[in-house]
Design brief:
Length: about 90
């Protein structure tokens, strides 16, 4: 499993707009620290309303994240969180 900073770098290398940590998003410490992503910045990777791909997430990117023991979760149509999969 990649550590949070490694995962943030991997996401950015793959075109994802990383905004910060989940704790920064929620303005308080999150027990299972995650990654805050601006999903609306890259509609080719994330499209909340697209039901043609699983969960509206680019399949290659989703596989990359899952292969590293993390997973995506929508917060709202423009915000995605990435969490460690325990």
């Amino acid at each position: 499993m990649k550590k949070i900073k490694e995962m943030m770098a991997l996401l950015e290398e793959n075109g994802v707009r990383v905004c910060g940590t989940a704790s920064q998003f929620y303005s308080s410490k999150v027990q299972n620290e995650g990654i805050w992503v601006a999903a609306d910045y890259t509609p080719e990777l994330f499209d909340y309303w697209n039901h043609k791909v699983p969960f509206g997430i680019n399949e290659k990117l989703n596989k990359l994240v899952e292969d590293n023991d993390w997973y995506f979760e929508w917060h709202d149509p423009g915000t995605m969180m990435v969490w460690k999969n325990f």
